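::Encoded backbone::
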Amino acid sequence: MGTDSAVCSLRQKQRQERLELILQTAEQVFTEKGYRDTSMDEIATRVGIGTATIYSHFSSKEDLMVVAILERDFRRIVPPVEEICHATGSATEKLGKVFHLLINTDFFSRRVQVLYAMGNSPEAQRAMLARQDAMLESAQAFSAALTTIIEHGKADGEFQPDIATATMLKGFLGMLRAQSVTDQFLNRYASEPDELLHIYLQGIARRE
């Protein structure tokens, strides 16, 4: 009985390690070659497994890309954002740190690239729908940390109390998306990130 349990546990561990290797390799290949030029066969070859093994974990290339890039990026970004949220410092300083973290890690620009590359294909829609619960959990934790920072800023007299917290949050995220889109597709209109951050913070700062 104990032996069977140990064997089962070992197999689960090996399966999890293989899954992580697939995701790491897929992220690497997608980053190198882009969505269209990446094949499941190449990912399998680099991992050293058969293509069928990848399909035992993921239903399509779109499904794999959603998990390897979008879902993993969200999981990775939440801990440092929460760390900034709970650290000492003013809310203004914390929003600045989160802003630069997201810019420097290409969090939004990678999401823009992935969504643009996959387009509105039925496969992409199905992949996003199938994984939305996993991403929603990370998205809620991410939004909760930012909401806490903004609420503290309002309570401490840094930010305007009459502007809804949700509006400030939407403005912050919208600014980051705009920066990513212009940098990605409209290089001639690309702006300095710090200028955008300054404009945003001036807009929400409490008036004397």
